[in-house]
Amino acid sequence: MPRPSQPLRPTTIKDVARELDLSVATVSRALTKPKLLRPETVARVRAAVEKLGYRPNLAAQNLKLGTTGIVYVIVPSLSPFFLEIFRGAERAAQEGGYSVVMGHTDRHPDREGEFFDQVSCGRADGVLLVSTAEAEAIVNHKRRLPPTVVVLEAVEGQIFPTVRVDHKKAAFEATNHLIELGHRRIAHITGPARSPMAIHRREGYLAALAAAGIRSGEGSCVPGEFTVASGEVAMASLLSRPKPPTAVFAANDEMAIGAIRVIKDRGLRVPQDVSVMGFDDQRIATIYDPPLSTVRLPTFDLGYSAMVKLRCILAKESYEMDVVLSTTLIQRATTAAPRIPDA
Amino acid sequence: MPRPSQPLRPTTIKDVARELDLSVATVSRALTKPKLLRPETVARVRAAVEKLGYRPNLAAQNLKLGTTGIVYVIVPSLSPFFLEIFRGAERAAQEGGYSVVMGHTDRHPDREGEFFDQVSCGRADGVLLVSTAEAEAIVNHKRRLPPTVVVLEAVEGQIFPTVRVDHKKAAFEATNHLIELGHRRIAHITGPARSPMAIHRREGYLAALAAAGIRSGEGSCVPGEFTVASGEVAMASLLSRPKPPTAVFAANDEMAIGAIRVIKDRGLRVPQDVSVMGFDDQRIATIYDPPLSTVRLPTFDLGYSAMVKLRCILAKESYEMDVVLSTTLIQRATTAAPRIPDA
DNA sequence: TTGTACGCGTTATCAT
DNA sequence: ATGATAACGCGTACAA
Which partner from A120, A155, A216, B124 sits 20 to 30 angstroms from A339, CA to CA? Predict the structure, then answer.
């Protein structure tokens, strides 16, 4: 007959020891270092553990060992882009026997600080920091931070083990793709002004224009916030100009989608009237109509490699300080030669 | 090989006590129950804490208090849909002083079990379980589970505090919307066969057809997996029939998008040639071209209300056992009357 | 091979 | 108002 009674007090290692008339030490060893014991004893312990439903108390283990088996992954937002990085990190963590806890900051330095506080209270053995908002926020905490790996973008002026991509180079290539198609009036919708990622992508855009000898007046940047809505606003402003651009490079896919929506709304076509280039290769880039030309970042690998590196650090093994993964230009259906090439 | 900065021994409460020549008890009280102490003492302690960078060790607190201040939120996947529920849960948790840890199971009962193991080891004070895959998986663990609230869909045959929506009713209304537009040949793309959510939505679809007196041969279900790709496959199969449906009700937005893609690919138009109805009102439903008619679920509120309920349980306050939140039909641009209404 | 005893950092219960 | 001290559950020297 089943006993549905929920024990008021959780079973502890003492209960198991008493049940078997063994010492707690023996029970503990049977569970963590079975090699040291007689196989028969180990078996008896296992049986009793099963019977009593004993689970080691993680808090006590943590306190004793000074280690949690937990890694915090801190991302700016819950967008699909960062989630894919998180997935990679999670995979690598699991392979190493770590659990991951995701924290998202909504691009708020304060929230970042909260997570830093938590980990400095001993809640995690390590941290994966994905594209921190403010370099300063982290500096104040650095002293107390457990081993930390920075992902996606180096923290300015700080030395952390890093796994990243070359945003500037990737943006250069994206812009250059438009130039090679014959475009000259190429606008850029930027990300948030303070985001290092956005800044570097902008630099790549400007560098490509310069390299092609395009006068600065012809290209131009309009501000966005990495959201669809901000892409719409930016594109509307571009289309209201006397000489609208023939191509637009958005600093991420979301804003590119926003741009396309506005272009279509005005009765113009993509790419026949305006070419649009995205960045990130989020899933929506594949399924949108038309499918979006963009730059693929190895998001999963970024997370995966970073977590592997963190595992190396925690295991005191060797690792590369700065790893740069490569990006890929993906031409789909939103970029084409301009109808009336202007020289 | 670079050397990570070795974190020095963390400051403990003893260090603070020694610094001030006070007892650890006083320091502890100054931090947790300032009212019991002389304001001057409290101030001195606060200053020393700041100076030494002391942080209470959470593992030790946890061990002593038998409480973690953590709630696990377990979701089947990292889709935007579940993330929005998670957001709501997080907000309510934060308001109650709890931290949340998200676990996703990839619809894998084993992974669900792993999280259950973790929480039964004392890693969390409570659990928010969003749409569990297998009722059985949870039964084995129920004995050891801390207070648990089920979100989105009741667990079959189990009694848990629940916050959910009426999937069947919502699907009924969605199907009825198509019927009222004049459609008769209405197909349904289902979710995974074992998903209770998918099953109930299907039931709503069938009930609506029956209520309208539509012969069962005219409507029909094709299987999907809640993914864009599966929606494409399902739609392709529907279009290859001698008498394709004039309207399709997909059990979620993703599959609806897949269906639209295939319809457009075949040179047909949405909604002129085929109407498409989604479910969930994910963000993509708003920005897709054309914007998707769908059913809005109060995702954020589901998570929020569920976490509030969990807080009540943990605080031993009263709460409603079963809460059902309402859904909203949203007509956008993918549903219209059929071109040639068939009687 | 197994048992004894201590300590991890904190809070609560007594004292004073 | 403050101090001394006993737990909390576990792992591990050290003993046996």
Answer: A216
- Quick one: which residue's CA is nearest to D12's C1'? A25
State whether B60 and A56 contact (CB < 8 Å).
Answer: no
pLDDT for res B156: 81
Question: Stated in angstroms, how far is A94 CA from D11 C1'?
Answer: 24
Is the confidence at residue A5, as pLDDT, over 50?
no
Long-range interactions of A19-24: CB distance < 8 A, separation 24+: A19/A48, A19/A51, A19/A52, A20/A44, A20/A45, A20/A48
pLDDT on residue A187: 97
Start-to-end CA span in chain A (Å) = 88
Q: Which residues from B are below 8 Å from A98, CB to CB? A: none
Token pair for B258: 């897949």
Which chain A residues are within 8 Å of B284, Cβ to Cβ?
284
Tell the residue number behind the tokens 């997080």, with chain if given: B90
Question: What confidence category does residue A136 fall into, taking pLDDT thresholds of 50, 70 and 90?
Answer: low
Domains of chain A: 13-56 (1.10.260.40), 69-165+299-326 (3.40.50.2300), 167-297 (3.40.50.2300)
Q: What are the DSSP calls for A59-121, one per residue?
A: HHHHHHHT--SEEEEEES---HHHHHHHHHHHHHHHHTT-EEEEEE-TT-HHHHHHHHHHIII
Task: Give the pLDDT score at A219.
Answer: 67
| Best mean pLDDT range from A11-15, B95-99, B146-150, B304-308 | B304-308
Contacts of A99 in chain B (CB under 8 A): 118
Handedness of CA A300, A302, A305, A311 (dihedral sign): negative
Q: Is the peptide bond before A271 cis (omega within 30 degrees of 0)?
A: yes
Nucleotide nearest to A17 (CA to C1'): C3
CA–CA distance, A225 with A234 (Å, rounded to integer): 10
Cα B168 to Cα B150: distance, rounded to the nearest angstrom: 18
Torsion of CA A185, A191, A193, A196, to 10 degrees: -110
Predicted confidence at residue B113, as pLDDT, reads: 84
* Residue B21 CA, nucleotide C14 C1', distance (Å): 21
Residue B42 confidence (pLDDT) above 60: yes
**pLDDT, tens digit (0-9, with 9 covering 90-100), for A234-293:** 999 999 999 999 999 999 999 999 999 999 999 999 999 999 999 999 999 999 999 999
Q: Is the CB of B55 under 7 A from strand C?
A: yes
Encode pLDDT of A206-218 as tens digits.
999 999 999 877 6
Write out residues whose CB is closer than 7 A to strand D: A 9-10, 12-14, 24-25, 28-29, 31-33, 54-57, 60-61, 63-65; B 21-26, 29, 36-38, 40-41, 60, 63-64, 66
Tell me how far apart the alpha carbons of residues B191 and B197 are, in angstroms, rounded to a whole number: 8
Query: Could B57 and A122 be called an inter-chain contact, meaning their C-beta atoms sit closer than 8 Å?
Result: yes
**Token pair 């993906």: residue:** A330
Contact A63/B63, CB-based, under 8 Å? yes
Å from the A64 CA to the C7 C1': 8
What count of CB pairs under 8 Å joins A to B?
93
